[in-house]
Amino acid sequence: MSQRFTIGIPSGRRFGVGDWFVLLAIAGALYLALRFALTAPGEVKGPEIRLTWTALPGYAALSIGRMAAAYALSFVFTIVYGYIAAYNRRAEMVMMPLLDVLQSVPILSFLPVVLLGLSALLPEGIAAEFAAIVLIFTSQVWNMTFAWYQSLTTISKDLREASAIFRFNRWLRLKWLELPFGAISLIWNSMMSWAGGWFFLMAAESYTVGERDFRLPGLGSFLQEAASQGDIQALFLGIGALVLVVVALDQLVWRPLLAWADRFKLEMVEDQEPPTSWFYDLLNDSRLVQHLSAQFGAWNERLDTWLIHRLKPLGMPETQPSQQWTPLSIGVFALLAAAVGYGGLLAGRMLLEVTPLQWLQLGIGLAATFLRVAIAMAIALAWTIPVGVAIGSNPMLARWLQPVVQVAASVPATALFPAFLLIFLNLPNGLNLAAIVLMLTGTQWYLLFNIIAGASAIPQDLKHTAALLHLKPLARWRALTLPALFPYIVTGAITASGGAWNASIVAEYTEFGGQVRSVVGIGAIISHATASGHYALLLAATLAMILAVIAINRLLWRRLYVLAEERFRME
Predict the structure, then answer these.
(1) DSSP codes of every residue in 376-387
(2) What range(s) does the ABC transmembrane type-1 domain occupy (predicted)?
(3) Which of 560, 92, 563 is nearest to 319 (CA)?
(4) Rounded to an integer, what distance in angstroms lies between the CA atom of residue 192 and that of residue 190?
(5) Distance between CA atoms of 155 and 178, rounded to whole angstroms?
(6) CA distance 270 to 393
(7) Beta bridge partners of 215
(8) What's the CA gap between 405 and 376, in Å, rounded?
């Protein structure tokens, strides 16, 4: 096996018709939700949140249930969406622009729209539950989908040829090639998704829009209530409960999955220190688990046999041939285009309410937030690359630091933001520094988890080859480590950049000590528009942020993504 790392910057995809179509569809959907929001109940009173330790077990169970429901939706969406986008070039022309737009929609500005719109259609409790799951889903799904898509597009040509020689159909290729190849990346990004879900749990379970108080019993609402009342003891109780839940999930779910997925590493030399898990060993020794595994294996064989007779074998190349437009497809597309155009027209009418001065403020806010995002990304890259490589390439170190990283990524920084303000308020440009620190917490973990996944996936035989060549540390980084990590860094950076823009809504505008404290930025404009009920400005600011993130993705990250797909794959 050889590893080809050549240099050459390909051109990125241009902003085309598919992008405008998707952007108009998003604008129309936001406008429709805002119109429903105007008919929502004028006053909503959420349930009382008890700040006692006896309430924490029940709250933790409710929060885990919402997180699990959102993750199940995220996983199904990831597998289906990423697979279609990777293998259907016509669909990819629409689906990848759509993914760019969706992952750039600021979650915290989208939540009040979802809540108010659903509350106009559904009972209050059901609307709040559904909106919470949707918010957690949107904080989990994008990095998983990008990671899965990246795995599918970087499978080496020799592995694809081998699957064609064995006459694999779609099911067998998914089972024996694609899922094993992307398993490590999917597991690490699933861990990141859960950490991101915990980060936004406070917003998902406790949100106030004017006189409407949407609250759900859970760890997030417990932390939000403790922070708003200034109850430090309850705040630390809630954070302690969250830490215990994260550590339990690490020991009972993520560490066993990593130990199991080590068999899928692409290498010809076995790792001398593979990841281990006491719970995974306990399950392997269980007779009940062995019996269930045998039953599952028999059922799996029957499923394989049934699908082998119904799905045709695949060959090379795997891209689908171009298809002719049928009258039905033309009619469906015309209706869809008309609906999207009408929705975009209505959204444009609402945008006419925004004054020229407000548009100028939006431009200045975009520039200020972009500068903070760039600083946060630079700091994140500076420390996550060396730390991620150290954790991913050293199983002993990973055994100790992996739970620490998960806990640090899962603790909602929004609960600790008052402490940040106390530290930075007395410093020059203290609010700007505090905003960058909070944005950093919404950025760095996406990079770190992807870099750990990339470092742990480097084949052991390539490491031995580098050692036999007596490469010095700097030469090893240039010839092996950085090229192998490049696709993972780009994947993490795409979602990290979106996370930093999203975190700006909390970082640039906050209420502390009975006063509203804010800095110039697009996030502050979104928060102010939400608090004041200025829906036209909220729509304009949200669309402006979406366009800014899409432009950055197309001009920078998408070009690097193509480079990773074409030049930095192992084969």
Answers:
(1) HHHHHHHHHHHH
(2) 60-254, 366-556
(3) 92
(4) 5
(5) 8
(6) 14
(7) 206
(8) 18
Say if strands 212-215 and 206-209 run parallel, antiparallel, or are unpaired. Answer: antiparallel
Distances (CA, A) of 241 to 57, 235, 246, 353, 564: 8, 10, 9, 46, 40
Amino acid 21 reads F
Could you state, in order of their start, the residue ranges of all structural domains in the chain?
Answer: 19-25+55-266+275-318+350-567
Across the chain, what does the average pLDDT equal?
78
pLDDT in tens, 359-399: 999 999 999 999 999 999 999 999 999 998 988 888 778 77
Residues 6+ apart with CB under 8 A from 520: 364, 365, 368, 508
DSSP code at position 319: S
Rounded to whole angstroms, the Cα distance separating 368 from 432 reads 10
Distance from C-alpha of 506 to C-alpha of 163, rounded to nearest angstrom: 48
> CB–CB of 290/299 below 8 Å?
no
**Both structure tokens of 26:** 């998003």
Q: Is 50 helix (H, G, I), strand (E, B) or coil?
A: coil
In degrees and rounded to multiples of 5, residue 568 shows phi and psi of -120, 40
CA 114 to the chain's CA centroid: 19
Distance CA 348, CA 352 (A): 6
Check if the beta carbon of residue 212 is closer than 8 Å to that of residue 116.
yes
Q: How far, in Å, are 431, 448, 449, 455, 516 from residue 405 at the CA level?
A: 27, 9, 9, 16, 32
pTM: 0.73
What sections of 309-412 are H helices per DSSP? 327-351, 356-393, 395-410
Residues, the chain: 571
What does the DSSP 8-state code read for residue 206? E
Q: Are 136 and 197 in contact (CB under 8 A)?
A: yes
- Structural tokens at position 545: 């942020």
Does the domain formed by 19-25+55-266+275-318+350-567 have CATH 1.10.3720.10? yes
- Residue 525 half-sphere exposure toward CB, CA atoms < 13 A: 28
What end-to-end distance do the CA atoms of the chain give, in Å? 6
pLDDT, tens digit, for every residue of 250-271?
Answer: 888 988 998 888 888 766 555 5
176: Cβ contacts below 8 Å, ≥ 6 apart:
163, 168
Residue of 309, 314, 328, 139 lying closest to 220 (CA atoms): 139
Cα 557 from Cα 158, distance rounded (Å): 27
